[in-house]
Write a structure and sequence with these properties.
This protein folds into two domains: 204 residues, 3-Layer(aba) Sandwich (Rossmann fold); 107 residues, Beta Barrel (Elongation Factor Tu (Ef-tu), domain 3), CATH 2.40.30.10. 25% of the residues lie in helices and 27% in strands. It contains nine helices and 16 strands. An eight-stranded antiparallel sheet has the order 11-10-16-7-8-15-12-13, with no helix packed on it. It has a six-stranded mixed sheet with strand order 2-3-1-4-5-6, sandwiched between helices. The chain has a two-stranded antiparallel sheet with strand order 9-14. Strand 12 and strand 13 form a beta hairpin. The longest helix has 12 residues.
Length: 346
């Protein structure tokens, strides 16, 4: 029965990807940023995609961007979140990247629809970048565990799964590349069940290249992942975990921050827990996947902060950004978490 279902599901290799952007929540009367500001914390889902190298992680990310309307559906969309030249050439994600997606669940509220913010914190795809993976997972509550139906469960699949479990994430298994003629989904499902203890009904079936089954993923994220409410205090003084940083010759250092407590906006003064250096915020925003300034970043959001910082050494991964006017703020356990992951992986 399983094999009959697999045969019926399989997509021909010449299948043309359908337009996925129809579920976009944007409208002519509301801009993306206006919708973003109205989404409540309980409708936020922070997730990552983890997989063995070359199992289609970047391709699945492209389809999710298309499906939610973040980018237009074209055949040129390949590795959209991979911005480095070496990533384009080798087809392997090296640097963490983020994309904030708005998904409109048309089945919610008796068919009137409800908007959700899906923050995709992308992870590198090579085993040498396990530290990058760990710091991305620190900003998430769940992860899509991607398994190639032509190769099954691989060593790095197991390693990334254990890292995600160590970070207390909710795991959603996803089987992909079902459109390939040499795929063996029955064998891959058996391996997933044996290696991770998932049931067959827990597994999502997709072909990231064609877009088949991608529309099931946002629903699974909404239904299975928890919102970032535990240990998040919207009305407390601001605290944010530095997940990544990069330098621009004109703007200085941009910090990618996972918001834990409170909120920040342009003009606020913040400080770093490790050095107590103070900075004034010049801009806050999200990546969609291109930078998009917003009025406020709040608890549960994952966004960027530009604050006139000159040296990336000041923006250490795992450090805590906090309200400079508040005393006795307890730093977030980011550095301890990363050290724990690296110790386990070694």
């Amino acid at each position: 029965m399983l094999r009959a279902y697999l045969v019926a599901l399989r997509v021909p290799t010449n299948h043309t990807r359908r337009a996925l952007s129809s579920s976009s929540s944007s409208s002519s009367s509301e801009t993306w940023s206006e919708i973003f500001e109205t989404i409540p914390p309980e409708n936020i889902r922070n997730f990552s995609i983890i997989a063995h190298v070359d199992h289609g992680k970047s391709t699945l990310a492209d389809r999710l961007l298309e499906f939610t309307g973040a980018i237009k559906t074209t055949t040129s969309n390949k590795q959209v979140l991979d911005s480095l030249q070496v990533e384009k050439e080798r087809g392997i994600t090296v640097k963490s990247q983020t994309a904030s997606l708005i998904y409109n669940d048309k089945n919610a509220k008796n068919g009137s629809g409800e908007n959700y913010l899906l923050n995709l914190i992308d992870t590198p795809g090579h085993v040498d970048f396990s530290y990058e993976v760990s710091r991305s997972l620190a900003a998430c509550q769940g992860a899509l565990l991607l398994v190639d139906s032509t190769q099954g469960v691989q060593a790095q699949t197991l390693a990334n799964y254990r890292t995600a479990i160590e970070a207390n994430l909710t795991i959603i298994p996803v089987l992909t590349k079902l459109d390939l003629p040499h795929s063996d989904p029955a064998k891959a499902i058996e391996q997933i069940e044996q290696a991770f203890g998932f049931h067959e009904d827990d597994i999502l079936w997709t072909s990231a290249k064609s877009g088949e089954g991608v529309d099931d993923i946002p629903q699974a994220l909404i239904q299975r992942l928890p919102p970032p409410l535990d240990n998040h205090l919207p009305n407390a003084p601001f605290r944010g975990l530095v997940v990544d940083s990069w330098h621009n010759s004109f703007r200085g250092v941009t910090c990618l921050v996972s918001m834990v407590d409170g909120e920040i906006k342009k003009g606020n003064e913040i400080s770093l827990a490790s050095s107590n250096k103070k900075f004034e915020i010049q801009e806050v925003g999200i990546l969609n996947p291109t930078p998009l300034p917003v009025q406020t970043l709040k608890s549960g959001h994952v966004g960027y902060v530009v604050c006139g910082m000159k040296d990336t050494a000041d923006a250490r991964v795992g450090d805590t950004l906090m309200d400079s006017a508040t005393t006795n703020v307890v730093p977030l356990p980011g550095k301890n978490f990363f050290k724990k992951i690296l110790f386990w992986r070694s």
